[in-house]
Write a structure and sequence with these properties.
With about 300 residues, the protein is mainly beta. The protein is built from one helix and 26 strands. Strand 21 and strand 22 form a beta hairpin. The protein starts with 12 loop residues before the first strand and ends in a 21-residue tail after the last strand.
Length: about 300
């Protein structure tokens, strides 16, 4: 959701069946304004999106059985933040403050059981444009990001949700990076961006690089499912022969076997299907379709 072609942000929700090629449908529209740089996360097969509405402070949840429902609001409206669940709590980290016009260091926690949201701590560095963070055990790992002037960082911040403190790892990213997407695989984070791919072992704090798996686009969706890594849509700024620039978008849903990335094999992107049209993909989440039990 939150897909756009740089001119129009559609309220459509596109459902992509990751088990069946070319099975792509349009679901119930979002009933509020979509923040193009809001972020989604899933808890118990329900998708929660933080950063919606005119003030970017709305939290909504979606499930096929009941559609869209509004939840409690964020303490501070924001976009370009990072979100992840640890147990029943959705953590919303950093981002760009809509009312303050500043890059944020605050961390908010939304409890889906009590339907309450509160500021619980601070990051070590104020950041925006990080993409989603990775939850591991009781901590959130937040990679890179940027300041208000879009100067990129290479630090890895670790937010401990047990005592609500934040530290910075002594082993930074190999280079500064913003707008990178990340998925968790066992004890490693797989980060993929426009120009490269990294594997970060959380337990050993070591990095490996796989540049052949770069996406060549920004603002794409990244999902790990069925031992495959899917890249959805995205865009790239291109200049024509007269030097006039414009965004060029992709509509394909492509994937590569996860093992190819782990083993550093030659690139092998395959096409799974196509979006309704070429788009940026800002908000996305992996909801597992549960099969009905046999009777």
């Amino acid at each position: 959701m939150g897909i756009n072609d740089d001119n129009t942000v559609t309220r459509d929700v596109v459902k992509i069946n990751l088990n069946q090629p070319n099975e792509i449908t349009i679901e119930e529209q979002v009933p509020t304004r979509i923040g193009v740089e809001a972020f989604a996360a899933v808890y118990k097969n329900t998708m929660y999106v933080a950063g919606m509405g005119d003030n970017r402070d709305e939290i909504w949840k979606y499930k096929k059985s009941f559609g869209w429902k509004q939840c409690a609001s964020l303490v501070q409206g924001r976009c370009r933040h990072s979100t992840a669940f640890i147990n029943e709590v959705l953590y919303v980290c950093g981002g760009f403050g809509i009312s303050t016009n500043l890059v944020l260091d605050s961390v908010e926690a939304f409890n889906v059981v009590t339907n309450k949201c509160a500021t619980v701590g601070k990051l070590f560095h104020s950041i925006q444009s990080t993409g989603n963070c990775v939850p591991f055990e009781s901590s959130l790992y937040i990679f890179g990001g940027a300041d208000k002037g879009n100067v990129m960082f290479n630090h890895v911040q670790v937010y401990n949700t047990k005592d609500n403190t934040c530290s910075v790892l002594s082993t930074p990213m190999p280079r500064p990076y913003g707008l990178i997407r990340v998925v968790l695989w066992e004890t490693s984070a797989i980060l993929i961006g426009y120009s490269t791919c990294f594997i970060f072992n959380i337990e050993t704090e070591t990095w490996q690089e796989r540049p052949q798996f770069k996406t060549d686009v920004y603002h794409f969706g990244l999902v790990l499912a069925n031992e495959r890594v899917f890249v959805i849509g995205g865009g790239l700024w291109e200049n024509d022969k007269d030097g006039i620039g414009a965004w060029e978008f992709r509509d394909d849903i492509r994937y590569v076997p996860l093992q190819n990335i782990i083993d550093d094999k030659p690139i092998e992107w395959k096409i799974h299907g196509k979006l309704p049209k070429p788009y940026f993909v800002n908000n996305y989440a992996n909801i597992r379709q549960l099969r009905p039990q046999a009777t």
